[in-house]
Amino acid sequence: MTQSLKKYYLNKSLNQIPRILGNMDRSYFSSTYGSMHRDYWLDKTSDFSDAVRQFGVQGLALVYCHKFHNNIYFRNDKILKWAIAAMEFWADIQHKDGSFDEFYPYERGWIGPTGFTTFSIVETFKLLENKLTKKQSDKILNAIYKSAEFISKGDKEEDHLANHHAMACLSLWKVYKLFNEKKHYQSYKRAMDNFKKYHNFNEGWSIEYDGVDPGYLTATISFLGKIFKDNKDEEILEICKKSIEVCSYFVFPNGFYGGSIGSRNTQHFYPHGFEIFGRYLPLSLSIANKMLLSLKDGKLVPPEIISDRYLVYRVPEYLESYIDYRSRPKQLPKLPFEKTNLNLYLKEAKIWIKSNKNYYFLVNAAKGGVVKLFDKKRLLISDSGIIGKLTSKKLVTTQWVDQSYNINKSENKIVISGKFNQIPSNKYFNLFKNLLFRSTLLCIGWSPILSHNLKGIIRKILMLGNRRLNINFVRTIIFKNKFIKINNEIFLGKKLKFEFLSFGDDFFVRYVPQSRYFQSQELTGKKTDLSNDEIKKINNEKHWKSETNLEILN
Q1: What is the rounded average pLDDT for all residues in the chain?
Q2: SS3 track for 300-337
């Protein structure tokens, strides 16, 4: 059974090659020949070619070089020519400082467009090197060299993302292996030292902005695993062993993974690292196997539902997982949800996990008490907290990572209290804002320093920081006899009034491009909207209280 699951890595990636090719300008006479950003070269809805889309070239190189089952692209001359065109186009859109753009012109993004694509271009170059002319080879190598110089200068844009720092390590390691120059090895070592600043060695997770995010933790494991394949660094192994253990807590009984429980709400799963480290940690294979079953059943975030920008990451990830698939032993370790006596509190992550013979429970207190509760098969509760709109039109929520929360935990009870935060990501372009933004880019885009400062400002506006309001909340979660209780209490500031208020069910408030993909489990969620009379009462009395009781078996 486990061996037959392997094919889903291949099937789920091979069937997306037409989509990657459809996004590519394949007309050799076109001035944008090789661009993989259809919105730019065909639809004309973008005013620049997003460099991240060029990551798709690695998928083309892999299907060209490997004789996978039912692989019609193997050793096909057109696939080769298109892959080379994609690499050359990548070099053509590079800025003089070695950087690339992803979300807007003159972005000069550090890892998003530059680090990720440098890794994929190096991997593609190595696969196709003997098919390139000297002119093509020199052009691509020169662009790789310049991008490595840019990456090695480090983060200049408020990038508090461990997976980006892990990718900096990976791209610089691959550049070092390509050129075999001491300075690139030194750059790799500096990048690794910087990554370690974002890793929690006590509990085994890595920071994504301000907490642990299960989806991106699997990305970090994958990137470090790709280094480990040809650099058997014991420290990388130990980091990944503990990180894999942390990931196991977010493998859910219903086959889904991560989601609202994490700091960035991501539901995706990068499997390659779990296949690589399966030799050293059998739990890694338990996770990979469960996630392969989920992939088979259309769960997780399969490539077919991913947006074009991120599809290009997933296809080579799955193809490499297929190549490095590790046979499973007959007996695999139990996953946390399969255990009957687990009661663990990750004090620094502020996440509580409980499992007994009847249910599996998680709460992220750092996010204001986001809750997930399962029986051994189904999702019973997914409660992201409280969300509301004030009469001033501000959106407010308890679901925000805030270090000022007061958290008190005992054996079967946790109490989280603090202030509501305003949701900052509810901002959109209109014609005037877009003109103003593009004008700003024209004025400052010539300067890498100003470009990076702008990127940092955008991150702070949309994703980071606290915007506390004079609304206090207390969320109490209690296990008592045959019930779990979730109690909410709100104390509303004098001058503030609610327009609507809702609690329960999943909702997402942080701007994260690789999140908010639909999953079938969403259909089972239930939320409670307060009536107009209840809203009036809260606004008058400045106080509200709710109690949810769910019967469970002990």
Answers
A1: 93
A2: CCCHHHCCHHHHHHHHHHHHHHHHCCCCCCCCCCCCHH
